[in-house]
Design goal:
Layout: E1 5-14, E2 17-27, E3 32-36, H1 43-50, E4 58-64, E5 70-72, H2 78-87, E6 89-92, H3 96-99, H4 106-116, H5 122-135, H6 152-164, E7 170-174, H7 182-198, E8 202-207, H8 210-216, E9 219-224, E10 227-233, H9 234-239, H10 244-253
Parallel strand pairs: 3-8, 3-9, 6-7, 7-8
Antiparallel strand pairs: 1-2, 1-4, 4-5, 9-10
Length: 256
């Protein structure tokens, strides 16, 4: 199977300090890959570099587009990058307020990406927004309310709907459950697991929460100090961690 995304020796430094260094992996269609590590491990820098929000210093990054075109992402023009983000990619921010437009309604937040790819029929756009609100378990009768009227968990669901309405193939997620109550986290994780499976999404998700990784990810990459110190199938890594850092991460969330 051809990888959807292939990174080789990807490196990003800040003033000589490693954000991420020599990261290599393949991501396949329909696969959820979780990047785990504590604060400062380099996981968010890596995610932003992969999503082309931050320029890499060295290495290679290639993407297989819808029609089989192999794109050299590090040589991609800015207009082509923006087109990818509107069509084939999505990015779910840690804070949903960063991923939503506060000045427009819930329905408009979901509908805007459709307009960006050419949709013009108001009735069709509103219908799609209604369908997606229901799909992410939001009350569709609130379609004309503004994001501020929704709770944090609901805002995150709204942001997810905004990202998925254009049927992307690859979605980047930065700590999507951070800051939410445990019960709200559980419902959101259940929703994400359902959506990634039914939509056959490829997902790169960053988290410091091993529980999130176990529930969502097919494979894990564990980062420490900007480097990947362990990688493999989720159950394999979490049930039999080999690296001392991974062992510490796993033991810290296990009951005594």
């Amino acid at each position: 199977m051809t990888p959807l995304l292939r990174a080789r020796s990807l490196t990003k430094q800040y003033g000589g300090r490693n954000g991420c260094r020599n990261v290599s992996f393949d991501l396949y269609p329909g696969e959820v890959l979780c990047i785990v590590g504590e604060s400062g491990s380099g996981k968010t820098t890596l995610l932003n570099t992969l999503a082309l929000k931050t320029a890499a210093d060295s290495g290679s990054l290639h993407y297989t587009a819808t029609h089989g075109d192999k794109l050299d992402l590090l040589a991609l023009s800015e207009p082509r990058r923006r087109l990818l983000m509107r069509t084939e990619w999505g990015f779910v921010q840690q804070n949903p307020r960063d991923g939503l437009r506060s000045g427009v309604s819930a329905g408009a937040n979901i509908g805007e990406p459709l307009m960006a790819v050419g949709a013009r029929h108001y009735g069709d756009i509103r219908y799609a927004a209604t369908q997606w609100m229901e799909r992410v378990e939001l009350d569709a009768s609130r379609i004309d309310e503004f994001p501020a009227a929704f709770s944090g968990g609901m805002q995150q669901r709204l942001q997810i709907a905004r990202n998925l309405v254009t049927s992307p193939r690859l979605v980047f997620m930065d700590e999507p459950t951070a800051g939410l109550d445990v019960s709200v986290q559980a419902r959101l994780l259940d929703l994400l697991r359902t959506l990634t499976s039914t939509l056959h999404l490829s997902v790169l998700i960053v988290t410091h929460d091993i529980g999130v990784a176990r529930l969502l990810a097919h494979r894990l990459m564990v980062m420490q100090g900007g480097e990947v110190v362990e990688a493999g199938l989720t159950d394999q890594v979490l049930d039999d961690p080999q690296h001392p850092y991974t062992q510490t991460l796993v033991s810290s969330v296990l009951p005594v």
